[in-house]
Amino acid sequence: LHMGKTMKEDLTVVAKYIKQLYPPEFNVFSIYAELYHNYFSSQAKKNAESHLEDKDIYLLLSWVHNFYPKEMRKDHALAMELDKVKLGSLLPSSLSKELEKKYLDSEEVTVKNLLSRCLDKEIQRWKEDKEPEKLNGHFQSELLGIFVIQSIYSGQKRAEDISKAVGEELSHRLLKELPAFLRSYRDAFEDFKEKSKKHRYYKPILIANINNCWNFR
């Protein structure tokens, strides 16, 4: 953030006040822009090659795909000048792809684990002597029907905020996880139906799970 702010502010000063003090052939703005970019890029590369936590990978990818090319370099005071310089990306393509793969792998596992824990909690609820919750007057599982969908949607949205391509790749992966989760859910529900017919709230629990189907569709 400090580097980005410094680069943006300094280049704005160069564009507005310093550039015109030199002959055009000196390409003063281009020289400043390339020096700042090269330093910024070297620091990003250094960070990318170190051990990063998942949240740091996400932040670095956000800089590479979003903050740097779209917000910083498209600033109204700089866009016209920077378009002439062709600075390129903050990270080499190979390193960026490597980080994207780490992020996607991690996010896929995170969502998969969330779904698994959610189903475990739901199964535990079926065993309790409690009536299911009602939403808009109908038995339904907020935990299962809503939390699962939100977990998948949130994962997709975070990925799309990095780039469209990363968002599409994660969506493709999660759409493979969802059927696997639904199969586990179905098997657990069938088991409950067979073994828990004497449960005090057997019928409301059946209704709640049937109502969940609309959300999942």
UniProtKB/TrEMBL annotation:
It comes from the Eukaryota. GO terms for cellular component: exocyst. InterPro entries: EXOC3/Sec6 (IPR010326). GO terms for biological process: exocyst localization; exocytosis. GO terms for molecular function: SNARE binding. It holds the Pfam family Sec6. PANTHER family: EXOCYST COMPLEX COMPONENT SEC6-RELATED, TUMOR NECROSIS FACTOR ALPHA-INDUCED PROTEIN 2. This is TNAP2 protein. The gene is Tnfaip2.
